[in-house]
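Deliverable D4.2, example record:
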Amino acid sequence: MAEEAQGQDKSEEATPRKREKAREEGQTARSRELNTMAVLVSGSLAVLMFAGGMRDALVNIMRSSLAQAVHADGQLVPALRFATVEALYATLPLLVLVFVVAIVSSGALGGFVLSSKAFAFKASRMSPLAGLQRMFSMKALIELAKAIAKFLIVGGVAVAVLQIWSIDLLRLGLKPLPEAMAEGLELVEYSFIALSCSLIVIAAVDVPVQLAQFNKQLKMTPQEVRDEMKDSEGRPEVKSRIRRMQQEIARRRMLADIPKADVVITNPQHYSVALVYVAQKMNAPRVVAKGADLMAFRIRELATASRVPIVAVPALTRAIYHATDIGEEIPAPLYVAIAQILAFVYQLKQHRRGAASAPRPLGDLDVPEEYRRDA
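Output generated by the structure prediction step:
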C-alpha cells in the first residue's frame, strides 16, 4: 500500500485531518520576511514617536551620571545601577511595542502553534545527504531569489534616500554642532523608516509564496486520502461493535419509557407497539417503543408489570410498526383508529375505578389500504 502511494502524484488537497496533524507536529505556514518587516516598521515608527521623550530622559541620565561620577566617593556601582534602571524605563515603551509586534506577526500567517514535536530530535536533520538536498532544492533557490531581491530593493531605496537628502547631509557640516546632531538624527530616523518600509514589498511577495509552498507540501496522493478515510471511519468490526452498543443503549431507553405509555397494542403475538399521548403537549399520539417477536414479548411483559393496558388490534399494530419509528407521531390517516383505542382505554380505566360500565369490545378498525401489511 505504501509503495502504491509513493508511485502516485500528490494531486489531492490536504484533508482537515492532515492539516490538524501537521499543526500537532508544529508545521504551519511561516513568513520570516513578514515578521522582519513588521518588527522593523513598528520599531522605526516607535522610535519616531518616542524619540523626544527618550532623548530627554537619556540626556538627564547622562548628566546625572556624570555629576555623580565627579562627586561620588566609591558610589560608582550604585550610580551605574540607577542609570541602567532609568534607561530601561525610558526605552520600555519601545521595547514593549516591538516585543508585542514580534509575537503577533509570528502567528499572523499560520496561527500560534506550541508543539513539543517540533523540538524533537530527528536524524534526518543530521544527515549530510539531506542537507545537500535542502541546499540544492527548489526552496533554497527561492530563498536565494528572495535574498537577491531584498538586496536590490533595500539597496535601491538606500541610494534613492541618499540622493534625495544629499544636499541636506552636506549642509550639516556648515551648522553648529548641536543643531547638526539634531538634524542628523532626524535624517537617520526617516531613512530608517524608508528602508524598513521597503521590506513591505518583499513581505507582500513572500506571504503568498509561503502559503503556496506549505499547501503543496501538505498535498496528498489519492491513496493517502482513501487510507485516511478508512482510518477515520474505523475498521468494520469496530463499527459493528459501536453500532451494537448504540442499539443496546437505544433499546434500554425504549424499555424504560414503556411504564409511561398509555396503551400497548399487539398483533397479538409477533408485534407490540407502545403509544403515549399528552393532549396539551402533543399533536398526535407518539410511539415510545416497538418490537417484534422476543422484543414484542418483552414489551408486553413490562406493560403488564406497569399496569399499562394491552389491546390486541393486529392490522393497526402492523401498520404502525412498519410506518412509524420510535419517537415519531403516528400518521394522520391512522388518527381515527387510534382515537377509538384511546377512548376504549379511557373507558376501561374508568370501569376499573368503578366510575363507568365495561367498554364494548373493539371490532375491526379501519386501516387505510396503503398502511395494511400482511400477517
